[in-house]
Design brief:
This is PepSY-associated TM helix domain-containing protein. Keywords: Membrane, Transmembrane, Transmembrane helix. The protein is an alpha+beta fold. It has two domains: 3-53 and 161-234 and 375-466, no CATH class; 253-363, no CATH class. Helices cover 59% and strands 10% of the residues. The protein is built from 17 helices and eight strands. It has helices at residues 3-19, 22-53, 55-62, 64-67, 78-89, 148-159, 167-195, 203-228, 232-243, 267-270, 282-294, 350-363, 368-395, 397-403, 407-413, 416-432, 434-466; strands at 94-99, 108-113, 121-127, 134-141, 302-305, 314-318, 329-332, 339-343. The strands form two sheets. Strands 1-2-3-4 form a four-stranded antiparallel β-sheet. The chain has a four-stranded antiparallel β-sheet with strand order 5-6-7-8, with helices on one face.
Length: 467
């Protein structure tokens, strides 16, 4: 008896038992479809996320000249550094923000906007705060000022460098990842319960199950945090948070008490355009920063943004997203240097705090190196998990074709109550996660189309037997 024949005989009782439990058969079929059809997207997202998690160390080496300085001594006023940057860049760009050197040995970043730059792109001039020497000139992205390497990796990770259409890939992966993870856990639990003890799987199935159990929490975390900045599901999440009063507070720059719009945690991911400030006097940056420091803005990493108009305030925002998180912000009236508004992370709604922590942990910045290593290990494990799943399918592809029922066939076997419940869950999840709902519909259509030849062959066999 060949190994494939032995495997078929060994699997036959299991296949027969599954046909007696439509819900279990449906779960198996769905898990298989997700692995086969969405697996490639999850695999690419895992590998690109693995590299992204290691970018801080790569950037430290690649951009060491721009980020660091060997000069020692007292730093010069921001006005002097800004003037040096403006002299270097000329009049073709408008000053948009300044990030003072967070600690000795690092550079100050003066950021400019220009009509030739894309949405959320800025030109950053890196200056030695002690000598006012220009150390570098780089294109940075988003309100976080992401450097070129991370910008490329970030855009590849979320859109395959295809822009908005490419974002469907990452949303598809994030939408189905939790389904695949929980479905795999449910299959493991059912097998364990039916066997009356530990599941004694062999070979690839054992490795697949064990690795999936180890990664379960991380996969659910990746899926949840990834969905928050997706286009369709993320929009629904934002609407729900706003309706529940859980949006992230934003400091108001209006000097007439206008209500601010909610802040966006994903500005550097979503490509939100930053408003262009008016021309600001360099000496105002020192004065505004001094007023903000006096009001309690004490983080080493801060960003100063000049007013966008005569009726607007300046803002000074903490941008240290490690632990403990420092993202407090104040608005400063440039005429009086009075604090007109402020937001403190300690007063954020719980949902806003969890979102902030979740996004920062997803990006590897919350707990530093430990966070990065955990992300890298989980991403690598996920890539291996997908690879092992494909290998399992390849070795048993004949069994999948011959012994497995289609998803539509299994749905027909459900009781009326189970059909209604399954339909209601599918509609609810599909409404909240539109990409998942649309792809599920495609799964069903594809399943029907694949079943047509099988049905035609069965009818031909029956006609032959009757003849």
């Amino acid at each position: 008896m060949t190994s494939s024949t032995a495997g078929a005989h060994h699997e036959a009782p299991l296949l027969a038992s599954r046909t007696q439990h439509p819900l279990l058969a449906l779960l198996i079929r769905l898990h298989l479809y997700v692995g086969l059809l969405v697996g490639p997207f999850i695999f690419v997202a895992a590998l690109s996320g693995l590299v992204y998690a290691l970018t801080p160390q790569l950037e430290d080496r690649l951009y060491a000249e721009q980020l660091y300085s060997d000069s020692t001594g007292s730093p010069q006023p921001l006005a002097r550094l800004i003037e040096a940057a403006q002299t270097y860049i000329g009049e073709a760009a408008t000053l948009s923000a300044v990030r003072p050197a967070p600690q000795p040995g690092t550079t100050t970043r003066v950021m400019f906007q220009a009509p030739s730059l894309g949405a959320s792109e800025s030109r950053a001039i890196f200056i030695d705060p002690v000598t006012a020497e220009i150390r570098g000139d780089l294109l940075v992205y988003g309100t976080s000022g992401v450097l070129p390497l991370r910008t490329w990796l970030d855009q590849f990770h979320r859109s395959l460098l295809l822009g908005e259409p490419g974002r469907l890939y990452s949303e598809l992966a994030a939408s189905w990842l939790w389904v695949a993870a929980l479905g795999g856990f449910a299959l493991w639990y059912i097998r364990r319960r039916h066997s009356g003890g530990p599941v004694r799987s062999k070979g690839l199935r054992r490795w697949h199950a064990s690795l999936g159990l180890c990664l379960l929490a991380g996969l659910l975390f990746f899926s949840a945090t990834g969905l928050t900045w997706s286009r369709w599901a993320g929009g629904n999440i934002g609407v729900a948070r706003a309706a529940l009063g859980m949006s992230t507070p934003s400091v108001s720059t209006a000097l007439d008490g206008e209500t601010p719009a909610p802040a966006g945690e994903h500005a550097h991911h979503t490509g939100m355009a930053m408003s262009a400030p008016r021309v600001a006097a360099p000496e105002m940056f020192d004065q505004v920063l001094s007023a903000a420091r006096a009001s309690g803005i004490d983080a080493g990493k801060v960003e100063i943004v000049p007013a966008a108009g005569p009726d607007r305030a300046w803002t000074v925002t903490e941008i240290d997203r490690s632990w403990p998180t420092q993202v407090d912000a104040v608005a400063v009236d440039p005429r009086t240097l009075r604090i007109t508004d402020r937001t403190d992370f300690s007063t954020f709604p719980l949902a806003a705090k969890l979102t902030r922590w979740g996004i920062d942990a997803h990006m590897g910045s919350l707990f530093g190196l430990a966070n990065q290593l955990l992300l890298a290990a989980t991403a690598l494990g996920l890539a291996v998990l997908v690879g092992v799943g494909y290998l399992m399918w390849w070795r048993r592809r004949r069994l999948h074709r011959a012994g497995r029922q289609g998803m539509v066939d299994v749905l027909r076997q459900l009781s009326p109550r189970a059909k209604w419940a399954t339909g209601a869950v599918a509609l609810g999840v599909g409404y909240c996660l539109p990409v998942l709902g649309g792809s599920l519909l495609l799964f069903l259509v594809g399943d029907v189309l694949l079943a047509l030849p099988r049905g035609a062959r069965s009818g031909e066999v029956r006609r032959t037997e009757e003849a």
